[in-house]
Amino acid sequence: MEEAKWLYDQLTPLTPILTALSAATPIHRSYLSDMDSRWDIITQGNDDRTPEERGLFEEKHYQKLICAGIEVPIAQHIANMFIRDPLLVLKDQIEQDDESCTDHFDYLQISVWNSMRFKPPPPDNDSNIGWRVEFRPTEIQLTDFENSAFSIFVVLLTRVIISYNLIFVTNVSKINQNMTRAVKRDAVLNEKLCFRNKLVTCEMTSEGKRKVRGKSETEISTDDLTVNEIINGMKNMFKSIFTYRQCHFRK
User: Fold this and answer.
1) 70 in a domain, yes or no?
2) Cβ-count burial of 107 within 10 angstroms (0-12 exposed, 13-18 middle, 19+ buried)?
3) What integer best gives the mean pLDDT of the chain?
4) Which GO terms describe its molecular function (predicted)?
5) Once rounded to an integer, what is the mean pLDDT over residues 6-33?
6) Has residue 8 been placed in a domain?
7) Number of domains into which the chain is organized
8) Confidence (pTM)
9) Distance CA 33, CA 38 (A)
10) Domain that holds residue 195
11) Is position 229 within any domain?
12) What is the pLDDT of residue 238?
């Protein structure tokens, strides 16, 4: 679970970058739009939370999770899904045993449209599947090769993050701002996204948890960068994501 939480936090700031890189939906209902991505359209169709609801969580469910020993951030994350009923319910799956099936929870989680999804293990005690993170903004491409390339890129990115204990965490407000920019026409070429101007790392403690090395590295210093600058780096600025990936393969 610790690794899943770590990846969730580090991958979330990268979702706008992959949204811009993979944007492949300029046409909606036969109309050519001023957006290259489907993200805003699907958000409007799957998440009806008001701005006020987005910052709330259901107190009863929150307390139940806390009493069960769930740590505060995870309890808040899950309790936030219970502020209202799900939008999606399948007629033939209403009556289910929630002790052995997670479909009801999955439908509820679908209704809270996030670029990352934190997925608990299946209820089957015999399953070897643990906590998972789902990276969700990447769009379907025209060819199998392109789809495979994006899938492999994200998988390799997770290996680099774990191997080097990289820190990408930034303010959620900045991520939301980046996502707004990332869906615009030709965002991959013309838009700049707010991103850390220095990639820092953390260290593993004896308890197996990650800890930021120094106080200065907890400070988030950002600049507006193009997708190319974030992926490939800028001269005399910081090690790029691509540079870390190359170093990983040379080990």
Assistant:
1) no
2) middle
3) 83
4) ATP binding; glutamate-cysteine ligase activity
5) 90
6) yes
7) 1
8) 0.83
9) 10
10) 2-49+84-250
11) yes
12) 55
